[in-house]
């Protein structure tokens, strides 16, 4: 990722933010303008920006030549729409999970002057997306397709979040409800569509493609998203907090994590009993017992094996795609996440 692209990307953020806090549809005063600006700066640009930058990268690879100023701006704007979508989900997600930190700083709702106003801020973030799309894409042939795409992916993500939350409720009564197929469904809907498919779909639309012709691309990206989430589950337990920027709490939170699903598959009756007694408890002793069991079952080795097999499978399905440019897009995506540490 070239630094000039990232600085260009951040310039576009400033431009979009300025549009939004001077949106003619609302009468801003200094207080409301200041609030929105501070809320945006705190929640939107702070992450790794991978999803947003991927739109620009993907579009470049599809076009295969230098982008015009206008194309760079539009690709960045779509990238930011994904970052806005992400911010909206995370702000609300942190409230639901009662989290404390996000990206190495306190969650937005934890700030003394914010609290539950964060719920409405989430709604505002969500509403910024169609404002950005309207201002910059209204005249484009693919405008309706863009709106459809964002609506559809938002629905899939919210529904994935729902299965995650209700599965966790049932799981607390009995861990046996947790299975690989449940994990896969949650991940596919909650993460894979918006993090992996959406950036590439945005680039394809800008490039004039019809998304119905790219079901295979969607499938490969959902597969990558699943692999990415398994890595995430793994890092939540085995990653270093100073590297990943947060302290993992999947065990305490009774999450349907890939690790617990695998542990249930591999455990004997006695080990299952230990899991049932300790998984989802807040006290450090219980968490330590679960982690110890993960070590005993060699989940680190099981994960490495999964990682290699998954990578191989994804590469094979990418290489069957007829378009070399699309293959490049998919491979560049995979390159960013394979064997990542954070």
From TrEMBL:
What InterPro entries does the annotation carry?
FPS1-like, Isoprenoid_synthase_dom_sf, Polyprenyl_synt, Polyprenyl_synt_CS
Name any cofactors this protein relies on: Mg(2+)
Q: Which GO terms describe its biological process?
A: farnesyl diphosphate biosynthetic process
Q: Which domain of life is it from?
A: Eukaryota
| Entry keyword annotation includes Magnesium | yes
Q: What are the record keywords, sorted?
A: Isoprene biosynthesis, Magnesium, Metal-binding, Transferase
An annotated Gene Ontology molecular function: dimethylallyltranstransferase activity
Q: Per the record, GO CC terms?
A: cytoplasm
Query: Is Metal-binding found in the keyword set?
Result: yes
The UniProt family comment states:
Belongs to the FPP/GGPP synthase family.
| Protein name as annotated | Farnesyl diphosphate synthase
| Gene name per UniProt | FDS2
């Amino acid at each position: 990722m070239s630094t000039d692209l990232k600085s260009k990307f951040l310039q576009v953020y400033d431009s979009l933010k300025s549009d939004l806090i001077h949106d003619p549809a609302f009468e801003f005063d200094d207080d409301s303008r200041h609030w929105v600006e501070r809320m945006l700066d705190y929640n939107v640009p702070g992450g790794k920006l991978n999803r947003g930058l991927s739109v620009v990268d993907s579009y470049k690879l599809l076009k295969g030549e230098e982008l015009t100023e206008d194309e760079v701006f539009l690709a960045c704007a779509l990238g930011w729409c994904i970052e806005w979508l992400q911010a909206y989900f995370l702000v609300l997600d942190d409230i639901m999970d009662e989290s404390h930190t996000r990206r190495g700083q306190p969650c937005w709702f934890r700030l003394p002057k914010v609290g539950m106003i964060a719920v409405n801020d989430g709604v505002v973030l969500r509403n910024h997306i169609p404002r950005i799309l309207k201002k910059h894409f209204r005249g484009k042939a693919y405008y309706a397709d863009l709106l459809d795409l964002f609506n559809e992916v938002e629905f899939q993500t919210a529904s994935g979040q729902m299965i995650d939350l209700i599965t966790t409720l049932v799981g607390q009564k009995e861990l046996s409800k947790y299975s690989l197929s449940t994990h896969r469904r949650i991940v596919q809907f909650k993460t894979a569509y918006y993090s992996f498919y959406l950036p590439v779909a945005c680039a394809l639309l800008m490039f004039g493609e019809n998304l119905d012709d790219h079901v295979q691309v969607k499938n490969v990206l959902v597969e990558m998203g699943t692999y990415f989430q398994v890595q995430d589950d793994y890092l939540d337990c085995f990653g270093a907090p100073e590297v990943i920027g947060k302290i993992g709490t999947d065990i305490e939170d009774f999450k349907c994590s890939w690790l617990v699903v695998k542990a249930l598959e591999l455990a004997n009756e006695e080990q299952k009993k230990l899991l049932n007694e300790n998984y989802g408890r807040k006290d450090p002793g219980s968490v330590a017992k679960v982690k110890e069991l993960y070590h005993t079952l060699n989940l680190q080795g099981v994960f490495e094996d999964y990682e290699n097999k998954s990578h191989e499978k994804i590469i094979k399905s990418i290489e069957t795609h007829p378009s070399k440019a699309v293959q490049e897009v998919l491979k560049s995506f995979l390159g960013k996440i394979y064997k990542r540490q954070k």
